[in-house]
UniProtKB/TrEMBL annotation:
SMART domains from the UniProt entry: CHK (SM00587)
Domain of life: Eukaryota
Official protein name in the record: CHK kinase-like domain-containing protein
Domain CHK kinase-like per the UniProt entry, residue ranges: 123-317
Gene3D superfamilies the UniProt entry points to: 3.90.1200.10
Species in which this protein is naturally found: Nezara viridula (Southern green stink bug)
Ranges annotated as spanning the membrane: none
Pfam families (alphabetical): EcKL
Amino acid sequence: MDKEIFEVVLSKSSQDPKIKRIIEMRTEPALPKGENYTSTILKITLKVVLGNGRVATKSFIAKKENTGEAAEQFSNDLSLFTAEVSVYTNILREMEYLMEEFGDTEGPLWCEFIHYSRADSIIILEDLKASGFNTVKRTEPQDLDHARLALRSFGRYHAMAKVLEERGLISKDGYKPYIFLNDEVCIRNLLYAPFQTLIKGMRKSWGEEWAEYAEKLSRVSFEELSKRTKDGGNFDDNTFKCLNHGDGWNNNMMFKHDWEGRPVEMRFVDFQVPHYNSPCMDVTYYLYSSINPSVRHQNLKSLIELYHESLTSSLERFGYKGYKPSLEDINNGMERLVFYGTWFFTTTFPCLLTARTDAMDFGLIFKTNGEEGYNLSVYCEDGVIEMIGDDLKALVKLFD
């Protein structure tokens, strides 16, 4: 996208309507290699002339679909960019109107959407770092303070989505089934394949005490794993359901911190896999993918209670008239998803937290149908047993 087109885009943006002319435009990677799997994230820095003649520096984020046969096929099959643009231009815009209607002053849970170029497959977004937001380092799981703010934010997001659904602005039939529950290719490549690599790692370097666990896990077929995952996530029609974010993990959250380093605001990013289901799907995905395992083990009860309070109080604040789930409803939903969460955590957590940039080759994974693409050494690194060992033992018990 050249400077002239960018000038036209910004002239129509509510964020920077006073930009008169772009003097200089510089593009650079916004994330290190290995930090994003389906998109290339770029930072665009502009030197601009404002309407009053002053010169200023502005920055934006450009999100471009990854190239390569496997990556493009995956993105196209799931309509990832189309889904994200729809969320930004329809759902999040209506959520903003809802906040204005009820005088919600807590702030949005997303960045501003600037522009989408279908021809270039590029989404232009607000640069949250320019407003003081940052991600938690991927190799360091979130602590309790971040977990509390994230779950409070999930409660607000789910509540606003439910109110929009009640008003007819969200259709439960307008979203594809969740890929990690219903797409056999994704389940095989993103859950079952690393599960097999984990077993190889256990046999190679975990020691004799883990041999029996590895043997038990090796007898579990893809069909059984897939069925148990689907059964757990297929909630009946009487369950409280809403639009889920779908990919709410550490890399897709940005936090602003106070002077003591405590998180005070949060924004979700990456809305490519929205789906309609129990909100416990989002909560489970987050708890098992993003926070320190010891924090989850020690605080699970209070964290679920905090989420439930945020959800129900937000439903009340935004005038929702339907059934509000009880704490028992949420706890029952979370219990149904223990298998999904534990399986997901033990197989993918080492890949997400490792400092290695070659932990996963997304294109190779889909090109080989999961036969290649996961780095075995990730599951043999120091600290992996301490990180996932307790949950892995719990997973084995679920098969007894």
